[in-house]
Amino acid sequence: MPNSFARSTGRVSIEASVHDFYKQLTTAKNAEESPFLTMKDLFMLAACIGFQMKQSKPLGRREQPFHYSVFTEAEDIPILKAIAIATTGDVAVLAEPERIVEIAEQYANVGIHALRSMVVENVGQPLWNLVEALRSQGTD
Amino acid sequence: MRIERVDLLNFRQYFGNQRLKFSRDDQQNVTVVHGVNGAGKTSLFLALNWCLYGEGVENIGQIVSKEAVSRAPRGGIIETKVDVTFLHGGKRFTVSRKLLGQKQTDGKVTEARTSAEFVLMRTSLSGIMERVDNPIGIMNTILPMNVRTYFFFDGEKIDNFARPEQASEVERAIYQVLDLETLTRAMRHLKSAAQDLRSQLKQTSTGELQKLVAEDEQARARESQLTERRETLKRENAEIQRHLEDVNKRLRDFESVQELQQRYDQFTQEIVFTQQRFEESVRTIRTIVSASYVRYAAEPINAALGFLEEKRQRGEIPSNIREQFIQDLLSRQVCICGRTFAEHDDAYEHLVQLLRNVTPTSLEDDIIETAGRLRGLLDGGNKQRADLDARMADKVSLEERIGQLIAQRDDIERQMRGAGEDEVRQLSRQRQEYADDLDANRVEQGRVDLELEQTRVRIKELERQIEHARKSDKRARLLARKVELSQKAADKIEEVYSIFAANKRIEIEQETRRIFHSLAWKGDHFQDVRLSEDYQLEVIDRYGLPARPELSAGERQVLSLSFITAMAMVAQREAPLIMDTPFGRLSSAHREAITLKLPLLAPQLVLFVTDEELRDKALENLKPRIGAEYRLRFDPSTSCTTVEELG
Predict the structure, then answer these.
(1) In this complex, do A95 and B366 lie within 8 Å of one another by their Cβ atoms?
(2) Residues B6, B137: one domain?
């Protein structure tokens, strides 16, 4: 299947107000302070959390920190598609990469705040807070 | 502008066609139209105003000739028209304004005045008439509408300018006639533009750039401080490490603690090694955590797979029959069993229906591939979880191991102090101090690194903000320049305006004085005519005092007339003076003086007069200058006026 995401010149949008938080969790040298390797990973997690919360919010003033082309074909794109299908209840959405990403952006726009309180508003270091959250996620 | 001819058709009491030719002779430049009160002088005056400017007929009732209406059949159309032919700048123009009225069943007439047709024709030198495209614009350059009141004037209102309360009227007249309107408008626009720009400038924050630049300087100074401190700490670290190594080496030389020191070294090595493994484990955990969204995605994956499964069960995807296959059957119109079918029969319709429900091939491929990958990801998520658990267990055991190793090494340290001589004890203490120093040093290094990182982020941010502020600063400077320019231009125009207005006021004053002296009867009594700076038109008596309160109605009229004709002169517009009943309120002495001088004041003079106001000596004075003379005859039986040429 041709990867229409890779061919797209589109960029993923996040709200400008959370851009610093994205940077904070991806760029520090100490792994324990910056649990994410890339902003894309953080975005994907935020979108999944937003979906789980069943809450999405259109974006206000935006930043566009990365390209569609960083989404992986094996994992990211199928997950984004799953979110889009589960949201719209229509397989036709698969033909519209921009719409698929937009749906994820709006979930991530809510999920990122939940993630923030989970990761940095707890006492521990972000990495361990996140590990804790992940492991408790598995038990329910 | 010199008027050659006026043609009236069914205009008020002028029933049918009526024509007047005005004298255009340089010497005999006077045309006199006689008429008793009510004969139609004012109607004729209105006809000129209406034709040229479409004005002056607002409050005069019906324009269409009543006689023409009464003769028209019910429902009939009556045409009312005034043509004015004049010469201007060597060309002949004809202005024509036409109005159609329709006679109603009750005998009244409807006039659509606003739809009156206005045409301006120009005759070229070769005699060809051509229609002028922009009649209103052209009329305005010949004799502007707001100026014409000073050329076409109503004798009843003639003394207006000489009334004390009319200063503003005088001022306005001067503005209009001298085209000062253009200047005031330019001034007003420039001032309001300056105002707008000023408020825009206020919104464009100034001084922000300096603040940012100052902060940037500070941040960069701090960055180099921190970088320096980091280097110092590094050097100190290396120094301490060397000391430590030195101490360890010296301790190895003591036979009493040689074995303990060897074990100490082994533990140190293992601590370092375990710490490295710990760091590696943290990085691995981060890699797993960073990709942990795969596990979080279980919910949307399950939802999407469930949805697709439902669709599959309904037979919608993957359709057992492929799109291309159905299309092939439809085009061949032969079933795989060999049976043929035709368009619109049952088999055909069934296939069309199938095709409609089939998911397009490209989408179907996408669905199949996506579904396959999603199933794989569910497993991947579970594996990830197991992986994370295992790595966390590793990490915890490594942490514990480091703790143990350090405790064991401390124990050896204690043994060494107990077993050795004073020098060994001293070295051991030294080693402890160095280790503490190293620790403190690393803490500070961490702090410096963090601040350095934050400072660098801030510097990057400042770079962006400064760039932005530079742009808006540039905008602000541009705005300030625009404000300055528009204000300066407005001020300059104001200056030019006041100089021009002052000069023109003096010019008009001189002209008014000259004309007044030539017209006024009590020439000796009135010393001077003044047009004051606040536009009061005043006559100064021989005692040097304003004489206006004592002026008779006739004298006021002469003063006004002087002013008006002075304006006409200063305006430098070649236009006729057309006066409706100008002498009605003048004494015979004034009339005599005026009739002697008036023909000299304008290239063409047209007077609409009653027999009472123009007789005896006054008429005699005018006689040699009269080039055309008419009498308006009003017939009470038909209420119509006919124009009769005299002489």
Answers:
(1) yes
(2) yes
Among B292, B454, B458, the strongest candidate for a mutation testing the A interface, having the largest count of A CBs within 10 A, is B292
Half-sphere exposure of B301 toward its Cβ, with a 13 Å CA cutoff? 23
CA atoms within 13 A on the CB side of B565: 28
Contact B524, B469 (CB under 8 A): no
Residue B194 lies in a domain: no
Task: State how many domains chain B has.
Answer: 2
Chain B residue with minimal CA distance to A2?
Answer: B366
* Chain A residues within an 8 Å CB radius of B301: 78-79, 82
Chain A residues in contact with B373 (beta carbon < 8 A): 74-75, 78
Res B522: pLDDT: 56
| CB-nearest partner of A1 from B365, B374, B380 | B365
Residue B215 lies in a domain: no
Give per-residue pLDDT as tens, A58-107: 998 888 999 998 999 989 999 999 999 999 998 889 888 999 999 999 99
Q: Which of A35, A86, A91 sits opposite B367 (nearest CB)?
A: A91
Single residue among B400, B420, B440 that ends a domain in this structure: B420
Closest-approach residue (CA) in chain A for B371: A78
**Residue in A closest to B360 by C-alpha:** A92
Q: What is the mean pLDDT of residues B68-83?
A: 91
Residue range B367-403, pLDDT digits in tens: 888 888 999 898 888 888 889 999 999 999 999 999 9
Does B43 map to a domain? yes
> B274 and B399 share a domain?
yes
Within a domain: residue B177?
A: no
> Quick one: which of B546, B606, B596, B537 has its CA closest to B566?
B537
A66 - beta bridge partners? A12
pLDDT over 60 at B557, yes or no: yes
pLDDT, tens digit, for every residue of B499-541?
888 888 888 889 888 888 887 655 556 778 888 877 777 788 7
Among B317, B366, B388, the residue with its CB nearest the CB of A134 is B388
- Indicate the residue among B376, B398, B420 that finishes a domain: B420
- State which residues form the domain around B399: 259-318+359-420
Residue B267: strand, helix, or coil? helix
Whole-angstrom Cα distance, residue B230 to residue B251? 31
Distances (CA, A) of B453 to B227, B446, B460: 11, 11, 11
Taking the CA of residue B374 and the nearest CA in chain A, the distance in Å comes to 6
Residue A94 to residue B301, Cβ atoms within 8 A: no
Instruction: Map out the domains of chain A as residue ranges.
Output: 4-139
- Give residue B206's pLDDT: 63
- Name every chain B residue with its beta carbon within 8 A of the beta carbon of A110: none
Pairing, β B152-154 against β B577-580: parallel
Query: What is the value of ipTM here, to two decimals?
Result: 0.93
